[in-house]
Amino acid sequence: MASVTLLYFARIREQIGLAEEQRELPGGIATVRDLMAWLAGMDERYERAFAEPEKLRCAIDQVMSPLDAATDGAEEIAFFPPVTGG
User: Fold this and answer.
1) CA proximity to 4, closest of 78, 54, 57, 65
2) Domain with residues 2-80, CATH architecture
């Protein structure tokens, strides 16, 4: 099992109730999308936060990444809703 720091921002942080946590990832978590599905199965807070994964963004080790990016070797994965501005 690999340990990773998970960071949650904005609406995701509010839904889960945590800004960050350390998790040991089980085998079979190959991509960010896999990680989101695993987290969604944790409890209803995570299920709500990750109910629409396509509407979320992520960064792996502070680099914006697609949801199909590999989690192998990641030390930090951040999740946040899309940012808009003007």
Assistant:
1) 78
2) Roll (3.10)
Task: For residue range 22-79, list pLDDT tens digits in order.
Answer: 999 988 999 999 999 999 999 999 999 999 999 999 999 999 999 999 999 999 999 9
> How is residue 28 annotated by DSSP?
T
Evaluate whether 71 touches 32 at the Cβ level (below 8 Å).
yes
Domain boundary assignment for the chain: 2-80
Coil, helix or strand at residue 47: helix
Contact 36, 50 (CB under 8 A): yes
Query: Exposed, middle or buried: residue 35 (CB in 10 Å: 0-12, 13-18, 19+)?
Result: buried
pTM across the whole model: 0.92
